[in-house]
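Feature request, filed as a ticket because there's no other form

It would be nice if the structure record came with a short human-readable summary line next to the tokens. Right now we just get the raw output. Example of a typical job, pasted below so the devs can see what we mean:
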Amino acid sequence: MADLTGRSMEPPAAAWPPCGFPANWSLEPVWAPGFPVESAVWFQTHASSSSSEEQLQQLQYGAATTPNLAIQEEEEEAQYKMEMEIHDPIQVFAEAAHEFKVDINMRDMKIHKYPASIQRLGGYYTTPTTVAIGPYHHGKDRLKPAEKVKHVAAYHCIMESGRSVQEMYAAVASVAGEIRGLYDKDMVAGIGDDDFLPMMFYDACFLVQYMLTCTSGGSEMDPSLRSYFDGNDSDIFHDILLLENQLPWRVVKTVMGFRPVPLEEFITYLKDGLQDRKLTEKKSPALDDSYEPPHLLGLLRFYIVGRSNIKRTRLPQTESMSFSVSAIELAEIGITLKANKTSELIEMGVRNKRALFAELSMASLSLDHARASWLANMAAFEVCSTPNFQAVDDEESVVCSYLLLLSMFADREEDVHELRRKRLLQGGGGLTNKETLDFFTGLQGLPLGSSYIRTMEEIENYRVKRRKRTRLHAFVYKNMRIIVTVFSIVGVLAGIFGSLMSLRRRS
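Raw output as currently delivered:
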């Protein structure tokens, strides 16, 4: 029998069945959903062993007819001790503790559920609208139309790879034992391998084909599939960046081994996706081979956050420190808000510009529904994967720090307008001032990231070091209208006095 590429369907001796399967498993061609019957995938079904049944009968017969009662009593005692060990309460606790430790150690790579701080934002930020990736939302009625598209994407992915169906499927199945444990065990408990493995395969092919549409690699894609991706681009992009709608990167990378994606180009395409202003000449980021992403959301977050080369000096300790400050308070002490020129979120902090003034600079943001969801899900990933925000590098909690700083300056719709005036929020489209305020307000329960705390320390140190100057600036800021009025009156009086003196000289 031939597969979709015209190759023989006989499984290769070295690659099929996948490593780890028992030697007495038989190979039977089974039709894979979404493919023609002639492209049946080889699955394994366990062959019964008559010799094993005979041995079992012999053992049962021997146990029943053994005349030696002493041996039987010893066996019963051993069985009793084994049952006592199994039901020993401390053993149950030990197993639970071990399982918990394994989960914590795998925190960086797991496919997490949403924390409460993100769930409060609502369904748009947590629920897919078009396509389910992975098991958490799989099978929901509104997402079923995309399942047919996954089969089409898999078909083209296989054809474009020039490899056989069973070879690609076996490669995905070979990592299934490890990746299954990355999902919430309760969510995958009722999903057997007959459903889980095809899900991983089809979802990975779908993601790879969509990623190609964002690069030059999709120029020769089948027109019908490309039309679907283009027509549903915003919805698909929203869905594949949801925290609970992720696929382990090892699966995606496995499929990419057969159908390569120009990853640098894909990351470059999305790296400045938080801003409307685009550079005409985009510089591709250097891929960090030392970083192993857990999934697509983690990969994009890594390159959008960036890596800071600035060596932070330890600030002197102050008597007290506030963990929040309003835009008005900043203005009173001489710190102005400024949008910096970088698109990397990690570039935030207080910069001294002149003797009496300083700037709090941050990356600017064009906030619409899609970008708001993207930011919220990157923050959710940080909350779930970072054990202690104050004990890790700034990069590990940057998104939370960035969002908390912006939300700190937005208590009213007028504050949002001021952020637009300062160019921290770009563009006139996207979310309205009220929608933006609601978004920021909903994020105020995020944990304090290290970049946020350091920025607050910089503000407090600026206030302490320049206490006299900041007091003078605050007095001028608060009484600016009165000062302007007084100087205006003084100017008028000076003019009148000058005129009187001129008239007196003439007389």
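Something like this underneath would help us a lot:
The chain has a mean pLDDT of 78.
Residues 116-261 form one domain.
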